[in-house]
């Protein structure tokens, strides 16, 4: 016995280390001789690749991986640093950049953390490395305290099966791996325990997987809460309809939501789902008439063309997507998506949500009518005069499907009535280019009204049950469009990125400002605590009197407003800096185009093209096109346009007109409240 103790002492305690795993799957280490327990892997158990590498190491920027390790070879007297990457490539880093290099300690990389709060140090390279390592193991979810980070795997993973739902449903006090089900379960538990409504905010860049996360959260609520009248199934049935009419293929995502939505799920006192209501925000209606390279129009246009039965094909005078201007600008196929199958799913969902045959016919009639409307072409016949080219039956088909007189439709899109106070109306003819703009404005307007109607029709079908009482108990899910940086960024991208700036500000408010205030109230020193405040960027976009959207609205009051005038005004207001807000505005005459400017967003600098700002903001309407469709013999049209105030939509009343910028700002303010 004495000999054994002597041998152990000579060998040292390192030979007594053993590895164990907690029920949550976390590795830890225990030394049976010393009784010491640690999360860090002892040197005695490390392989050669796990030992600390010699020398000084830092993180360096990399175009592919974001950051990669680099060894410090030497330091210059002027502060410069010579670095060598793991592949042997050397790089001389100038003094200014060298001062910002982040140290790398290899021991920090050995165990990817489920919760980034547990990292030895919270810095960008270490966060990205942790997310990457977990992603490589198909662990797409990672926590930051109560916040869930999700990385889109772009493939199917067995993460949402009934058994997984059951695991999180019965988790109790167990600590399970990060998951969207965990977030949903926490919201439901807090709702029931504290009798207080909850909200889940889902945000991220385009293609990050927000729509899928929303669907999985809804699926979880449907499974764990249920209802007595299957209303939870109606909530899920809304998805195929909203995706057909509100989603499209983009360069980043085959099923990108081109609108924002806030879904409120109502619960009765027992915790069962009793209803729901959706509110939609900023449908990207410009997509109806124009798609960028590699993208598609909204799914419904292709689904109707490809999936309609023989009777519908004849009734709506359909052809393949390649026949119509609004669907043939880019290739129409999507890998892994069957438009015929999706159309069948759409029809089933409409049937289950009790859409009448008349309603379904009216919806499909409008979609087909817009397809034929887009095929109407024009040719100039004189100075600011044009006529419709009679090369096919597009005008007649569009008019008959929309149930308006062909002559009225032709007149409405080739001329405009100008109303002058105290004078008779003046009929002004349009050039071919102006007629195309008016045709497209009509198509975008009708589609937007149809989408609004669909959302309200779904709300009506689902209902709110007892949740519509004075003090409803709800869980709200905000699925807002992601931050976008494209090759060409238009007015829609400005609005989308503005919404994301608002969300970031809300995030800062709740996670940083209020948390910091609580620490200060407890007399805890947080002087070193810093975060990037995006209030100046918000002021640049929205604050009166010089905010970009405010200035745009003011300029659009001028009947002769042009995109160039808007650009020049913005440059004059903000181009020279001078304030925190203006410092977020970027304009370089030497490197930017004539109508370009940039904004320093929290997610990066974005260059915007002013081309189309005025037309998009004011819709480019004349009262004639609205009045023409209002004469439709289809009663559905009367319902669709019942609340439309023509005088506030058209250019004839610029000082009273509702603009896209003004409407969106109001929506965002209501949402954040």
Please, could you describe this protein's structure?
With 673 residues, this protein is of the alpha+beta class. It is 40% helix and 16% strand. The protein contains 22 helices and 23 strands. The strands form eight sheets. The protein has a five-stranded antiparallel sheet with strand order 7-6-5-4-8. Strands 11-20-14-15 form a four-stranded mixed sheet, with helices on both faces. Strand 2 (27-31) and strand 3 (37-38) form a beta hairpin. Helix 11 packs antiparallel against helix 12. The longest helix is centred in the middle third of the chain and has 31 residues, at 432-462. It is globular, with a radius of gyration of 30 Å.
Question: How would you concisely characterize the structure shown here?
Answer:
The chain has 673 residues and is α+β, with helices and mostly antiparallel strands. Helices cover 40% and strands 16% of the residues. The longest helix is centred in the middle third of the chain and has 31 residues, at 432-462.
Shape: globular
Structural class: alpha+beta
- Calculate the terminal CA-CA distance, rounded to whole Å: 74 Å
Helix content, binned percent:
40-55%
Q: List how many beta strands DSSP finds.
A: 23
Strand order of the largest sheet: 7-6-5-4-8
Please mark out the parts with pLDDT under 50 across 5 or more consecutive residues, or reply none: 1-12
Could you report the average pLDDT, rounded to the nearest whole number?
A: 88
Main β sheet profile = 5 strands, antiparallel
Q: Counting H and I runs of at least 4 residues, what is the number of helices?
A: 22
Question: Rounded to an integer, what's the Rg over CA atoms?
Answer: 30 Å
Question: What is the percentage of strand-forming residues?
Answer: 15-25%
């Amino acid at each position: 016995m004495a000999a054994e103790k002597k041998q152990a002492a000579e060998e040292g305690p390192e030979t007594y280390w053993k590895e164990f795993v907690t029920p949550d799957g976390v590795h830890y280490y225990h030394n049976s001789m010393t009784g010491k327990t640690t999360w860090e892997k002892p040197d005695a158990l490390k392989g050669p690749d796990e030992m600390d590498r010699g020398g000084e190491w830092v993180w360096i920027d990399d175009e592919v991986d974001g950051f990669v390790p680099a060894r410090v070879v030497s330091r210059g007297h002027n502060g410069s640093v010579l670095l060598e990457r793991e592949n042997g490539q050397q790089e001389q880093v100038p003094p200014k950049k060298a001062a910002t290099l982040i140290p790398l300690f290899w021991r920090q990389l050995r165990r990817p953390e489920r919760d980034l709060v547990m990292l030895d140090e919270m810095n960008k390279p270490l966060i990205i490395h942790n997310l990457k390592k977990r992603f490589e193991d198909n662990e797409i979810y990672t926590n930051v305290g109560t916040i869930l980070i999700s990385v889109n795997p772009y493939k199917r993973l067995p993460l949402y099966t009934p058994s997984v739902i059951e695991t999180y449903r019965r988790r109790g006090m167990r600590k399970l791996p990060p998951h969207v089900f965990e977030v949903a379960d926490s919201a439901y538990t807090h709702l029931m325990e504290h009798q207080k409504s909850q909200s889940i905010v889902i945000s991220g860049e385009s293609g990050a997987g927000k729509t899928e996360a929303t669907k999985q959260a809804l699926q979880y609520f449907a499974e764990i809460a249920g209802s007595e009248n299957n209303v939870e199934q109606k909530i899920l049935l809304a998805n195929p309809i909203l995706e057909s009419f509100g989603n499209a293929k983009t360069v980043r995502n085959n099923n990108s939501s081109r609108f924002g939505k806030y879904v409120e799920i109502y619960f009765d006192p027992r915790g069962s789902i009793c209803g729901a209501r959706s509110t939609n925000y900023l449908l990207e209606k410009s997509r109806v008439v124009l798609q960028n390279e590699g993208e598609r129009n909204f799914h419904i246009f292709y689904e109707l063309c490809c999936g309609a039965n023989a009777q519908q094909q004849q009734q709506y005078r359909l052809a393949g997507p390649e026949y119509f201007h609004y669907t043939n600008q880019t290739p129409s196929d999507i890998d892994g998506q069957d438009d015929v199958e999706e159309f069948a799913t759409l029809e089933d969902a409409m049937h289950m949500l009790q859409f009448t045959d008349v309603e379904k016919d009216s919806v499909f009639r409008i979609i087909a009518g817009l397809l034929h409307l887009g095929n109407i072409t024009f040719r100039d016949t004189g100075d600011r005069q044009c006529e419709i080219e009679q090369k096919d039956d597009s005008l007649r088909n569009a008019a008959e499907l929309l149930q308006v007189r062909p002559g009225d439709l032709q007149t409405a899109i080739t001329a405009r009535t100008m109303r002058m106070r105290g004078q008779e109306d003046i009929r002004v003819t349009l050039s071919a280019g102006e007629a195309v703009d008016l045709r497209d404005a009509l198509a975008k307007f009708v589609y937007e009204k149809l989408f609004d109607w669909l959302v309200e029709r779904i709300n009506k079908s689902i209902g709110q049950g007892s949740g519509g009482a004075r003090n409803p108990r709800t869980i709200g899910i905000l699925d807002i469009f992601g931050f976008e940086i494209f090759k060409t960024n238009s007015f829609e991208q400005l609005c989308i990125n503005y919404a994301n700036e608002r969300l970031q500000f809300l995030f800062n408010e709740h996670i940083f400002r209020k948390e910091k205030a609580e620490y200060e109230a407890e007399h805890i020193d947080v002087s070193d605590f810093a975060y990037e405040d995006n209030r100046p960027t918000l002021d640049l976009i929205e604050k009166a009197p010089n905010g970009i959207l405010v200035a745009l609205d003011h300029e659009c009051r001028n009947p002769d407003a042009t995109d160039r005038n808007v650009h020049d005004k913005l440059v004059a207001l903000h181009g020279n800096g001078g304030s925190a807000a203006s410092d977020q505005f970027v304009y370089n005459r030497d490197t930017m185009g004539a109508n370009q400017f940039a904004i320093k967003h929290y997610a990066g600098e974005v260059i915007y093209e002013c081309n189309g700002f005025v037309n998009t903001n004011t819709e480019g309407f004349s009262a004639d096109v609205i009045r023409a469709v209002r004469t439709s013999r289809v009663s559905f049209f009367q319902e669709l346009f019942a609340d439309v105030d023509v005088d506030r939509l058209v250019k004839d009343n610029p000082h009273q007109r509702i603009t896209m910028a003004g409407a969106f700002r109001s929506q965002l303010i209501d949402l954040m409240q």
